[in-house]
Every structure is written in structure tokens, then in C-alpha cells.
Amino acid sequence: MNQELWTTVDEYLIDALIPNDPALDAAQASSMAAGLPAIAVTANQGKLLNLLARVLNAKSVLEIGTLGGYSTIWLARALPPDGRLVTCEFEPAHAEVARANIAEAGLGDLVDLRVGPAIETLPQLAGPFDLSFIDADKQSNPEYFQWALRLSRPGSLIIVDNVVRGGAVANGTSDDPSIQGVRRLHEIIATEPRVDATAVQTVGGKGYDGFTIALVTS
User: For position 203, which CATH number holds?
Assistant: First the structure.
């Protein structure tokens, strides 16, 4: 098994199950043209977020880490006309690209994009959110998760991306702040009685990684 094969399979699955989408393609192209890092979710991961939001009949979504708005578009499309999505982005330049992409997709009225450190934005928000998607700086995952939980309700989902880190998450002695942030996240979840959670390893066009999903139970 290798990266070339993982990418080929990803491309096959996307071609087979996810039709070309001008708005999403444009969001990817404009993000690339603006020099944003190529770390957005893949199309099949975006579709998974969309499906989960639809299964929940979500009316409110919290996203921590907007980047160019690609995952934001997938999530916002799952919402009803009176829904809302609040997305937090640290970098003003990224937020500018995302805002244009979201508007181009016709979702500007559904999306409230907040610019600045999420740890400062989150206390200003009013929940509950039906689904929270955390995909920002990994060392702050514990704090982001705790805020997402505060802003949730029983039945909400909290999804945290990039928790496997190419397998490095298993290294308890790593001095990488991202690894330690993910490990602290799982330590918090393991002792948190209000959630029930699992994690799934993934391979694909973005390499070897995975996500954690927590159901808020009380």
C-alpha cells in the first residue's frame, strides 16, 4: 500500500460517487490561486460532513478552521433555508478568500464568518449547535473541543479532523505540539461523561490520517 494507490482509489471513488460541482471546483481553484495551503478536506470527506449534517437534520453548524471555505460550502449546503453556520478563521487573508467562495456558492446568507483567534470568538457565540467540525491548529484541539461541547446539546455531533497524523499520534513521547494536542484531546474525551466517541483511521489523497467523532449524550 502506498500514497499513489491511495490517491488513485480516492480519485476513483470521487469520480464514481460525487458529480463535478462548479462552485466547489471554483473554491478549490481560487484557494490555490491565492496560495492557501492544500490542507482542505477532500471531496469525499466533504460529502461525508454533508451527509452527517443531513442525517442530523442539522439547523446550526459550528466550524473551527475555515481556510478557503471548501468544507464550509459542503456543510452549509446541508442546512435548511433558515439554518446558520458559524465558521471561525484566524487568518484574515484566508477569510477573504473563503468569504468570496461562500458568496459565489450562493451561501452568504447562511454563513457567519468570524475572523480572529477562535479561542476568543467561541465565548461570544450562542449555541446550541447541532454539529461542530474542528479542523484548525491541532495544539488547541482540547480547548476547541471543550468549547464545542459547551455549545452543543444532547444529540449533537462533534467531529475533529486530522487526529492520526500519519500514525504519529501513537507516539506518547513526541515533542510535536500538534501530536500532543491530539493526545490531550483524546484524554479529555475518554474522561468526559457527556460524550460517547470513536476514532477512524483513513487513507486517501491527503495521506494517512483520520478523524474523531463524538456524540453528545447529556
Answer: 3.40.50.150
CA-CA distances (angstroms) from residue 15 to 24, 87, 144? 14, 28, 34
Please give the tally of structural domains in the chain.
Answer: 1
- Residue pLDDT, tens place only, 44-101: 999 999 999 999 999 999 999 999 999 999 999 999 999 999 999 999 999 999 999 9
pLDDT digits (tens, 9 = 90+) for 104-144: 999 999 999 999 999 999 999 999 999 999 999 999 999 99
Residue-wise over 30-65: b if at least 16 C-beta within 10 A, else e? Answer: bbeeeebeeebbbbbbbbbbbebbeeeebbbbbbbb
Instruction: State the residue range of the domain holding 141.
Output: 3-216
**How far is it, in rounded angstroms, from Cα 128 to Cα 111?**
16
Q: Euclidean distance between the first and final Cα of the chain, in Å?
A: 41
